[in-house]
């Protein structure tokens, strides 16, 4: 009987399995059988001959399997097609195209892609080997400030510069030679505990600003701006604080510059022998050190505040200058902009100390302003700067060239005063659009920063991948018409953002550009936020 039960159970299992097989639906592969491999190899190990070359150079690459596809081959240098001149069983010869640039080579056949080796396209811009800070900085570089003796102050959001801050951090400010070499004689101690944006020299001191609350041993009582002695130490003053009758006199040391803001200061300028600051702040703040606490047992620090938005002028001791953009009757600053602002201040004689403001605002002092406005030296709106309706969207950068007397703006706008202007425009000194410069279409992103050089060339960086349908990975040079400048656009991928482009010289006297910001690749080479390139 027990054996019969086993037999019945086995038969039932077989029937269930067969029933499941009948119900099972067989589906076809949604991707089909796929395309068979081409059988093409473009060697990534074999060095091309020559290993690098200029536009128009004929280059031989090791490749096999190309003969069957002779009529379909599209060979590209960093995305730009070159002219194929010969195909053999083991090689392919190609001419570097007019706007070919350093980067990966590839072969496209129909819709299949075969990657090849990196090829260096030689051109008129190259990394300067004489710049000595080869390791760069480990964080953003916001400013390089030239000193009278030829050295520079370098500021930003870094804690290491050229690998000299590995053991003892170099917090956000260093002094260097003209060639970028670290200067150990600048004694900053722990330096700033937050980002530094700008430095100026005034009254025999350095004035530094940014987003920080302490400097070296003074770990508090700083509000985004303070003064330093020329050796890099903080400028302090002794204050006799409150004491009870039973106590002896007590002197404590505080930052001598007693004033600041409640939020980030992005720019500072020398302005009529005072300090003009712009940024995202809403209040001016100042400390009172000589008051007691509620039960008279110890001294305390009281923080006084005065409403003043985005633009403020300080006296040299840190007090607020209420003669500049301030309403005495209401004890407030003027309304300023209804959105974020950035700034540029003129130092050229004919426009001296006029302040240009740009950003994402549509009104300024409660008057219409299309994201761009200029103030006279007295702080009032300069009516001679006529921008019309301005831009239809935000402006990310503005630079000015005193030689060409042009402003250059970048952003995500599409028009300027109702006229086409795609993400970039040259503006005349009177605020009108320079229509001889016509920006072309950007793909894959926008220009973040640009500067016109003294010879009229325009250097542009950003997140874009193509310009006017030509591969330009985030960095390019244009002529005065807005077209890609020949032989200046061979550099490979750039990754990051620039905060400034400074015209300078290499060690051997060649024309050069110092590039600073937050970037980690230039010409397809890993770099760290500061480099110098020669430009021929």
Automatic annotation (TrEMBL):
<feature type="domain" description="DUF5008">
    <location>
        <begin position="24"/>
        <end position="117"/>
    </location>
</feature>
<dbReference type="InterPro" id="IPR032175">
    <property type="entry name" value="DUF5008"/>
</dbReference>
<dbReference type="InterPro" id="IPR013431">
    <property type="entry name" value="Delta_60_rpt"/>
</dbReference>
<dbReference type="Pfam" id="PF16400">
    <property type="entry name" value="DUF5008"/>
</dbReference>
<dbReference type="Pfam" id="PF17164">
    <property type="entry name" value="DUF5122"/>
</dbReference>
<dbReference type="InterPro" id="IPR013783">
    <property type="entry name" value="Ig-like_fold"/>
</dbReference>
<protein>
    <recommendedName>
        <fullName>DUF5008 domain-containing protein</fullName>
    </recommendedName>
</protein>
